Amino acid sequence: MGTFVSNVVLLNIILRLLTLSSQEGLHEERSIREGWYWREKALAAPRSSYRKIHYYERSLQADPDVAAVHLELAEVYYDLAISYGYRDLFESAENSLQAALKTDPYLVPAHYRLGMIYFLRGNFELSRRELEEAHLLDPGYLPAKNSLRMLRKKLEMVTGE
Fold this sequence. Notes:
Blueprint: H1 2-19, H2 23-44, H3 50-62, H4 67-84, H5 87-103, H6 108-120, H7 124-137, H8 142-159
């Protein structure tokens, strides 16, 4: 599988180079390759580590328009925030998720995770909106469906209805 992926990446690079005629295009291609390099290093790094965050941030510096990298970075921040209880990590995770959604507004896991961050921070209305958006985009996405059901029960208990 690795050889096939490498060949596909190499073919894409060659095709892009053949279609690019300016220095600007070559610089953009270099940024994309550098972004993928740092993303691969991040994926290989130990789970929920600051080294992983460093690699993802380097990837985003090279190519900031990859929604998946924003989402993966947010996941690392989220896991660390849950593990250590650091509020600033929740803020970093929220910022990364918002950047991911800015790049790709149909990214269901980003809506779900953002909803969970809002829930953990006690902002149930924003949590409900994000979870409903995730459910609307993909009605079969079980994490959003189950979390939305739990949130509704929580809101019923709080309001006393």
